[in-house]
Structures are given as structure tokens and as C-alpha cells.
Amino acid sequence: MSSRGSPVAVIRVSGSRVPFVLERITNRKRLEPRKATLCKVIDPKTQQIIDHGIIVNFPKPRSYTGEDSCEIMVHGSRAVVSMVLKVLSDQGLRESEPGEFTKRAFLNGKLDLTEAEGIRELIESRTETQRKRALEGVSGETSKRYKSWRSMLIKYLADIEAQIDFAEDEGIDSRSLNESLNGIRVLRETILFYTENSLKKRSLAKQGFQVVILGEPNSGKSSLINRLASREVSIVSRVEGTTRDVIEVVLDLKGHLVTLCDTAGLRDLNHEDLNHKEEDHKSIEEEGMKRAKERALSSDVIIFLVDVTRPNSLSLVKQFKKENPGMNVVTVVNKMDLVSGEDPPMKPSPSELPADHFISCINDHGIQGIEQMILDKINSLYSVVEQGFMTERQENILTRVSTTLLTAIEVIDSDKEIDFVILAHHLRRAATGLAQLTQQAITSEDVLDVIFRDFCIGK
Predict the structure, then answer these.
(1) Which end of the chain is more exposed for a tag (fewer CB within 10 A), N or C?
(2) Contact 308, 334 (CB under 8 A)
(3) What are 96-151's pLDDT values in tens digits?
(4) CB 233, CB 226: distance < 8 Å
(5) Which parts of the chain sit beneath pLDDT 70?
(6) Cα separation, 54 vs 37, whole angstroms
């Protein structure tokens, strides 16, 4: 809230005292459920009107928390809000802890843990991609997936335990047993695939798509990052070597979080033309180039920028690709404005240069093509990532479940006769782990505190 307040303030209240408090601050016996009602908000002690506001009453259990709840909307001046909060405090209410409303909703069975975690991610989302990912958790689809895996595992466990209890009977269905043993393998592979792909998607959504710009000094790296960011991020100078460290800028590109990295220029410092440089200057440049290459190796795509007036620098691109064959390198020729004027074009012509894109940071020629290239790279990564919402807590549990199922498979594949007692033990542990993903096996208050402590006040 600014020093002048805000147009409207919404105060959310939940708990058993809500009906009593509503009657006291409105002098009304009953407010119609789930209907916005214009009321005088009154100080019960003095009967003075604090404000005219709108109140929505949510009787239990049809509320966010599952308890009696209400939302009080008043004018957002500091004086009004402060007085309303004082009156509520006088009626025995207290300020909520971060995430307490959602925690109560969980404890009252209104949502499970994966949905609660989805709400937290939704609140923290900064881009359209993050919002969509969080909605996968809020919608309950993730919970359904986890619960279906647990149901499968319980079915397999039932078949295994039947072998323990009725192994001597002739009526045991061996076909069902074999299907369960195979099902355990398939389930583990499914969990592994889901965990790996969801981890990729989480990394893309939260850390962003990493783009590193490499090239010789004065090839236009700083100009390019300034154009893509639509603001002056890096210093642009005719003096070579002005960028010594990695400069990062984070931007929202069509709903995707993208990190652009400007780096020190790459060149051969042992070249005879550079021998006159002081050793301290050369060592600083060497460190800058080292950091540039290290940052490039952790990126999703590398834009290798080439000055059209120095086509020989394409040899740097070839050398880099040769040394790093697995990297996603896009060759971009810059300063095309220098060969497209009225004067005869410089040689070699653009058609003779083996590059992916031709741009000019002076007149913005080709810049949109670079943006589209980045978007295409992002979309190609997302196209191979299975839709799935997974938090770090869920990842840790799924990793343990996968390890436990691997142990169970080793029991099945051992040279000895299958020990169904040990196998059942491992399956029970895996089923318990899957239950922890939602809510069925949560008993520790510490676990809940970790999940809800990062929520904002009032949610």
C-alpha cells in the first residue's frame, strides 16, 4: 500500500467467530451467503460508522478454508484499514500467518498438498509460462496422476500379498501376478520419465531460457543485447574489450522467462598485433574470455556474433563448434548496414557467409528474426517435455519412490526364488511415498511448515 493508500482494501477473515463478528460490525443478524452486500461497517463499542463497504459471507463448508469466512471490502485509506483491523482485533481476531488460509484449507480437506503448492507457484509466477505451469498443480491434474500411480501400486501389492497368504492354493491367478510384476517395471519407468521431463520444465519455467552471446571484440554483442532487451544494458563503445565480465539481463519474451548474457570478446591474445598490450591487461582479458566460455557451456543456446567486415572471424565459430560439438550454436552476422548502402557492397557478400542470420543493430534489420529464433528454440524444448507440475519436494519424494521400486525389481530379477515378503515390504514403502505427495500420509507439522511458510499474508 502506498502512503496515500489504495482505492479498495480487501480484508479476509476465517474461523468460528466470523458469524459473531459480522453481526457485531454490521448490526445485522444474517448476511446472505456468497452475495456481495453493501453494509455500514461499524465500531461495536461506539456505534460509529467506520466506512460503507461491501461484505461477502462464506458460511462453512463452502469457503476457501472450509471454515466460516468472509471478505470485507472497504476504501483503502490507511485510516480506514487501520480502524477496521483494530475493531476486528477487539473482537478477538488476530492477523493470519503467511499461508495460514491455504494451510487451513488443506487441513479441512478443501485441497491437497500438490494443489496448495500449485497455489504458491501461481502467486509467485512472473511470466505466462510460469502461470500455466502452476495451474497444472492447482487444477488437481497432478494429484490425479499421483493417486493413480498409488492405486496401481496397491493393486500390485495385493497380488504380491496374495502369494504370501495363499501360495499353497491351486486357485492363485499366475497371470495376474505376472502382470503385476511387469507393471512394477512399467510404473518405475513412467515415474522416471515424468520426473526427468518435469524437472526440465521446472528449470525452464523458473530459471528461464539461457542465451549467451559470444563473438570477437566490437562485433556488436553489447548492441545486440541492448536491442533485444529494448534498453541500455551493456556499454557500447568503439574501444575494444569494454565488456570484461558476464552481464546478464532477464526479460519476458512472449510469456517466456529469458536470460540474455553479454560476454567478453574472444580473440587470440598471442597474436603479434596484441603483443604490445601490458601483461595485466592481457590477464584481465584472458579471465573475461574464460568466464565467457564457461557461461556459454551452461546455456541453452549460443549466439555467435560475427562482424561482416571481419569474415575471417568465422574461424572462431568453427573452432568453438569443434571443441563443443554438443552445444546449440547459432551463427549471426552483424553490421549488415555496412554492406547495404549505395556504395558497392563489401566482399565477401552475405550469400557467401555460412551463417544462420544476418542483422544490423543500427537499423534493427533482422532483430525480430533473432527473437523468433529464440522463441522457436524454447518451443522446441517444451515440445519434448511432458506436461507436468513438480516442486522440489515432490521431486525428492519421487526420486525415493523410484529408488525403492528399483530395489523391488532387483528382488524380482534375482537368481533366487522371489521372496514375496521382502518384495511386499518395498512396495509398501513406495506406496507410502506416493501418498506423501498429496496428503494421505502427512503427519509431521514440520513438513507442513516448510510448504506453507513462503506464502504471502492473507493467502
Answers:
(1) N
(2) yes
(3) 988 899 889 988 989 888 888 888 888 888 777 788 888 888 888 889 999 999 98
(4) yes
(5) 1-5, 165-174, 232-245, 267-286, 340-353, 382-388, 440-459
(6) 5
Alpha-carbon distance values, 48 to 10, 27, 83, 91 (Å): 21, 12, 11, 16
C-alpha cell at 115: 494443489
Maximal CA-CA distance, the chain: 95
Q: Which three cell numbers stand for residue 137?
A: 498443480
Give every strand in the sheet of 247-253, ordered side by side. 247-253, 256-262, 209-215, 301-307, 329-334, 357-358
Query: In one letter, which amino acid is 5?
Result: G
The three cell numbers locating residue 62: 463452502
Residues in the chain: 459
For the chain, list the domains and their CATH numbers.
6-94 (3.30.1360.120), 96-205+391-459 (1.20.120.430), 208-383 (3.40.50.300)
- How big, in percent rounded to 5, are the helix, strand and coil portions of the chain? 50, 15, 35
Phi and psi for 393 in degrees, rounded to 5? -60, -45
Helix (H), strand (E) at residue 251: strand 247-253
pLDDT tens per residue, range 290-310 = 787 888 888 889 999 988 888
